Amino acid sequence: MEDFEFDTAAAPNADVTHRITIQGGDHPGLVARLTETLIEFDANIVRLNADCLTQDDSRQYLIQIAAWIPPDREHACLASISNTASSMQMQCSYSKMHATAIS
Fold this sequence. Notes:
Layout: E1 18-24, H1 30-40, E2 44-55, E3 58-68, H2 74-87, E4 91-96
Antiparallel strand pairs: 1-3, 1-4, 2-3
């Protein structure tokens, strides 16, 4: 084993600028489609959490994404994510984080 050094300075795209929540039924390739959409807009996924919830004998998926989205591509990126979720009959919501928020 060899020691190696971590760069302790975080890149600007490691900051969370948006929190995105998507919920609905399961669809094959769901997470892949959402992440591909973010990649298309040069966004960075800082954290992603996916859970399966069972309610009244139905399974719902809850995906929570903390992301950095370039300011000049923010509106187009969020619209595309909303359209992607809608095309899979899923609900999408998002919020913009304030600059002082802790990621």
